[in-house]
Amino acid sequence: MLHFRGHLKGNVFVVSLAFADLVVAFYPYPLVLYAIFHDGWSLGDTQCKVSGFLMGLSVIGSIFNITGIAINRYCYICQNFNYDTLYSYRNTLLLVALIWLLTVLAIVPNFFVGSLQYDPRVYSCTFAQTVSATYTITVVVVHFFVPIAVVTFCYLRIWIMVIQVRRKVKSEVRPRIKPSDLRNFITMFVVFVLFAICWAPLNFIGLAVAVNPEEVAPHIPEWLFVVSYFMAYFNSCLNAIIYGLLNQNFRREYKRIVMSVWKPQLFFQETSRGGTEGIKIKPSPGLNNNELNKGETL
């Protein structure tokens, strides 16, 4: 039951991360395409501010949710005995709500600084790095380097735990790591690594420009900024691919969705079949929890 509850609570953060990735797809990206086709922004300042706000919501929401997932996995794998107390269902929902509250609060200062502006180089209303050097440095440090440091610490501790379990040098009080836990951890670790790779160039450019705007900004090649910008926002499209490549359940659901598009009747047949099979298939009364968990530990 602990194993099931651990996945359920961890999945709340994954759903929240998926929502952050989808935010840009529903509003900002269509406006970017519109600006590209019309070779400029013609939708007004209000639309520009809303688009920039939602882009920020997606970016900061993603890194804060990735941080929340890392802390959740750390508590579940490395601090197993405290997990149910820390991550009750109510506390989990409150933590997700806190992540989004902090995300909104992190974006609001942009309206006072005036840093949400249209950038013709990328046809987007986005964060302008040259408006305020102090604010840009704060954004890069608080929204990128601090979360990256926290996530790195959590995943390093988890990797140490995994290596210890593999070498069988763990203490008696430490729980065993199930293969499913390890697979989920690797999936989220890959999500984190790709996020860091995709966003690092744009953040380093922002930091360099903020340190000395007059000297550095004119010497940043336009192609470098454009590539780093679109590479950063392309990260929102990668997570679904990662889930599909590394998670069998996601692959199965992707296949079912694709098949249902071509043959909708298969979707309803599988749904009805799944409902009847769920009634027919029951575990053997003689199968206890120990037998159910056999082979599940590393």
TrEMBL record:
PROSITE patterns cross-referenced by the UniProt entry: G_PROTEIN_RECEP_F1_1, G_PROTEIN_RECEP_F1_2
Top-rank lineage group of the source organism: Eukaryota
InterPro entries in alphabetical order: GPCR_Rhodpsn, GPCR_Rhodpsn_7TM, Melatonin_rcpt
Residues passing through the membrane, by range: 12-30, 50-71, 92-113, 133-163, 184-211, 223-246
BP terms from Gene Ontology: rhythmic process
Disordered: region residues: 277-298
Subcellular location(s) of the protein: Cell membrane
Start and end residues of each G-protein coupled receptors family 1 profile domain: 1-243
Pfam family, one: 7tm_1
Membrane topology classification: Multi-pass membrane protein
Record carries keyword Repeat: no
GO molecular function (one): melatonin receptor activity
Keywords assigned by UniProt, alphabetized: Biological rhythms, Cell membrane, Disulfide bond, G-protein coupled receptor, Membrane, Receptor, Transducer, Transmembrane, Transmembrane helix
Gene Ontology terms: cellular component: plasma membrane
Annotated function: High affinity receptor for melatonin. The activity of this receptor is mediated by pertussis toxin sensitive G proteins that inhibits adenylate cyclase activity.
Family listed: Belongs to the G-protein coupled receptor 1 family.
Name of this protein: G-protein coupled receptors family 1 profile domain-containing protein
